[in-house]
Amino acid sequence: MTIESPIPVIVNGAGGKMGREVIKHVAESQDMILIGAVDINPNYLGKDIGELAGIKHLEIPVINDLESILITATQEKVQGVMVDFTHPNNMYNNIRSAIAYGVRPVVGTTGGLTKEQLKDLEEFADKASTGCLIIPNFSIGIVLLQKAAIEASKYFDDVEIIESHHNHKIDAPSGTAIQTAEILAESGKIYNVSCMEETETIKFSRGCLASNNIRVHSIRLPGLIAHQEVIFGSEGQVYTLRHDTSNRTCYMPGILLAIRQVTRLKSLVYGLEKIL
């Protein structure tokens, strides 16, 4: 019986809260091997990522040079995977660099890609025959919520989305909320057709308009992690779908699944539901 080589994994944004959690789970996975930890925060540079993540010493220092780690990954027997939880502004360049070196990106950073950039990355991944996964939310619960929302949208014409996150989240609305609105819009239905003209006495008090007239509201407060409500309404009733996270471990099964699945892909795939 042939034992397959473990998947080489790079974590970009390794010093962040999500990055540290990914480090823990990759280090514990028998079919994966951590080969690099990247973070631009000067407070983390040179520190052992295992100790920074609160686990054993891994003899892998945090560096701020993604390219050098990508080059290292090309020397491995098995094609490597880059897990990226960095700033949205760096998202496009990080993905393109990984694909250029033949390293497969698994990206949880949200809010950093325009439609034009996403199309460019799709074409680039196709030409390189390199798998790439961009996942707005790695929680299985969110996938189930979105599936339930699709079913509910067949019977309700009015819907709004409320997403709540910690006050260190940079982008708003969240990538998950945007994706949820896009999924609901795929039916072609125009939601929330009002019988009167609304007036906002304070700008954006009614939230932002996403796909097909769906309104999205964003809340940012300390004490929150990640939460989403999809609220449907009709005469005499309100139907609410809600997903809450209490810690970041809920994302880890989805992330580990994505690392394993991306090695089998030869193109860009958007959304966790596509690989379940």
From TrEMBL:
List the pathway annotation.
Amino-acid biosynthesis; L-lysine biosynthesis via DAP pathway; (S)-tetrahydrodipicolinate from L-aspartate: step 4/4
Boundaries of each Dihydrodipicolinate reductase C-terminal domain copy?
141-276
E.C. number? 1.17.1.8
* Main localisation: cytoplasm
Positions contributing to (S)-2,3,4,5-tetrahydrodipicolinate binding: 166, 175-176
Domain Dihydrodipicolinate reductase N-terminal per the UniProt entry, residue ranges: 7-138
- Which residues participate in NAD(+) binding? 13-18, 39, 108-110
Q: Which reaction does it catalyse?
A: (S)-2,3,4,5-tetrahydrodipicolinate + NADP(+) + H2O = (2S,4S)-4-hydroxy-2,3,4,5-tetrahydrodipicolinate + NADPH + H(+); (S)-2,3,4,5-tetrahydrodipicolinate + NAD(+) + H2O = (2S,4S)-4-hydroxy-2,3,4,5-tetrahydrodipicolinate + NADH + H(+)
Q: Which residues are named in the active-site annotation?
A: 165, 169
Q: Where in the cell is it found?
A: Cytoplasm
Q: rRNA-binding: is it a keyword of this entry?
A: no
Q: SUPFAM superfamilies per the record?
A: Glyceraldehyde-3-phosphate dehydrogenase-like, C-terminal domain, NAD(P)-binding Rossmann-fold domains
Provide this UniProt record's keywords sorted from A to Z: Amino-acid biosynthesis, Cytoplasm, Diaminopimelate biosynthesis, Lysine biosynthesis, NAD, NADP, Oxidoreductase
Give the record's family classification.
Belongs to the DapB family.
Could you give the subunit structure recorded for this chain? Homotetramer.
Name the NCBIfam families on file. dapB
- What does the record give as the function of this protein? Catalyzes the conversion of 4-hydroxy-tetrahydrodipicolinate (HTPA) to tetrahydrodipicolinate.
What is this protein identified as? Answer: 4-hydroxy-tetrahydrodipicolinate reductase
What is the scientific name of the source organism?
Answer: cyanobacterium endosymbiont of Braarudosphaera bigelowii
- In the UniProt record, what gene is named as encoding this protein? dapB
